[in-house]
Design brief:
Length: 248
């Protein structure tokens, strides 16, 4: 075989940020329909005591709940979600009452509460549906990428966006391996993880092939064919960050 490859590629090991979702912060309210117009008010009766719903398990989040792009962009905040605890203990109809300030974290909060389970509220010995609410705290407790990662982070700016992708508010990241010749020219690239948007993936490949410049690795003191891993972050945030490769 020809000159040996000098492979400078590894897997990025993500740390595990933890975030705690607070328990319900307001007493549940009974969900009931209003009487039809013109109907006489129901006869008064002593209010029945309600046993509040109780979570089946602690409502905490894990690293899997934290959006990956939010971790890389250091997004943190607190979301207040209101939702229905159904008579069977499941959760439905979540709505955002207070935003965390980050669309990704708010969306993740809605997805999270829909997976919660409760021992339902009880009135007169029967389970009932109630409205409740909870704060979800999104807090990174560890760096999102350790120093020993072999992938280089490349933060794209809104000006780099394909027009249609920008108009549609598309965001995501692309993990890609770039193969270089001894002069640092791009031979090929392989996408390991797509952004979920074809135009962002295509724009990533186009920039790598036509706009970015690399320095190839050396093997035994001489430039050699090599490979480098990149994580290209597409974010519409105005502070997209510094890029890890030069661009024309």
């Amino acid at each position: 075989m020809g000159r040996a490859f000098a492979i400078v590629l590894g897997m990025a090991m993500l740390a595990s940020p933890r975030a705690i979702a607070a328990d319900n912060t307001a007493p549940p309210a009974i969900v009931q329909s209003a009487p039809p117009p013109g109907a006489p008010p129901p006869p008064s009766s002593p209010a029945s005591a309600i046993t509040a719903p109780v979570p089946v398990s602690p409502h905490t989040t894990t690293a899997d709940d934290y959006p990956m792009l939010s971790r890389w962009l250091h997004e943190e905040g607190r979301t207040l979600v209101q939702f229905t605890i159904n008579a069977d203990g499941t959760v439905s109809d979540p709505v955002i009452m207070e935003s965390s300030g980050h669309v990704r974290l708010d969306a993740a909060s809605l997805d999270l509460v829909k997976r919660w389970l409760y021992h339902p509220a009880i009135r007169d010995g029967k389970p009932i549906a109630v409205r409740s609410e909870a704060y979800i705290q999104w807090k990174l407790t560890q760096p999102e990428l350790p120093e020993q990662t072999y992938f280089t982070m490349v933060y794209m700016k809104p000006d780099d966006y394909p027009p249609a992708a920008k108009a549609n508010g598309e965001e995501g990241f692309v993990a890609v391996v770039v193969y270089l010749d001894p002069d640092g020219n791009v031979l090929d690239s392989t996408i390991l993880h797509g952004s979920g948007f074809a135009d962002l993936d295509s724009a990533t490949a186009d920039m790598i092939a036509k706009r970015w410049h690399f320095k190839a690795a050396e093997f035994e003191g001489k430039p050699s064919r090599s490979a480098v891993g990149l994580i290209v972050v597409w974010s519409l945030s105005p502070n997209g960050g510094q890029t890890g490769a030069s661009k024309n």
